[in-house]
Amino acid sequence: MKKHGLIVVDLQNEYLPTGKLPLSGIEDAAANAALAIADARSKGIPIFHIRHEFATADAPLFVPGSDGVQIQPAVAPVGDEPVIVKNHINSFRETDLRQQLDAKGVEEIVVVGAMSHMCIDAVVRAAVDMGYPATVLHDACATLGLSFNGVTVPAAHVHAAMMAAFEFGYSTVKSTQDYLSVA
């Protein structure tokens, strides 16, 4: 079995109902992510926390130093678990995530976090393109509804479309319980 690492993407206060960009199902996703994190900690699986913040204080959200950029307490890092700060959608872009994965000998990744259609999509596709097989825990991810060209797409449909796309050609998609039952 290949050594895997858990990537926890952007589970920050900004996405809570009290934040500037509340996501549908974020509290359930964070609770499931917390289960995956606890399992990883108990098994010595490396955990990599990703925290999004914009580079300037005039950003509309994810403002440096604000409460919104803080990682939610339920999934907060402990000990020497790294927190990789990113300024872009892709967690690999202009960060040392790849170097940290390689330094820990990670050969495949498990991904949880937010938003399914943006940062989760970007990190999964980039990781797979770099040679890291990926598993996404669908119920440990959250997103929001979107609109395009007069069509409104509910969050559940946005999320399902992303998970279906992953499963079609990019990654394994599992529930947290299915993952924990074999992990």
Tell me briefly what this model is.
33% of the residues lie in helices and 22% in strands. It has 183 residues and is an alpha/beta fold.
Commentary on this structure:
The chain is α/β, with parallel strands linked by helices. It has a single domain, classed as Isochorismatase-like (Rossmann fold), CATH 3.40.50. It is built from five helices and eight strands. The strands form two sheets. It has a six-stranded parallel β-sheet with strand order 3-2-1-4-5-8. The protein has a two-stranded antiparallel ribbon with strand order 6-7. Helix 1 links the parallel strand 1 and strand 2. The chain starts with a strand and ends with a helix. The model has no long low-confidence stretch (mean pLDDT 97). It comes from Pollutimonas nitritireducens. Pfam families: Isochorismatase (PF00857).
Main attributes of the structure:
6-stranded parallel sheet; alpha/beta; 8 strands; globular; 183 residues; hydrolase activity; Isochorismatase-like_dom; two-stranded antiparallel sheet; Rossmann fold
Reading side by side through the largest sheet, how are the strands ordered? 3-2-1-4-5-8
CATH architecture: 3-Layer(aba) Sandwich
Provide the structure class.
alpha/beta
Indicate the low-confidence ranges by residue numbers: none
CATH C-level class: Alpha Beta
Oligomer: single chain
The 3D shape can be described as globular
**Hey, roughly how much beta strand do the residues contain?**
15-25%
From the alpha-carbon coordinates, what is the Rg to the nearest angstrom? 15 Å
Order of helix and strand elements from N to C terminus: EHEEHEHEEEHEH
N- and C-termini, Cα separation: 11 Å
InterPro entries: Isochorismatase-like_dom, Isochorismatase-like_hydrls, Isochorismatase-like_sf
Keywords: Hydrolase
Organism: Pollutimonas nitritireducens
Protein name: Cysteine hydrolase
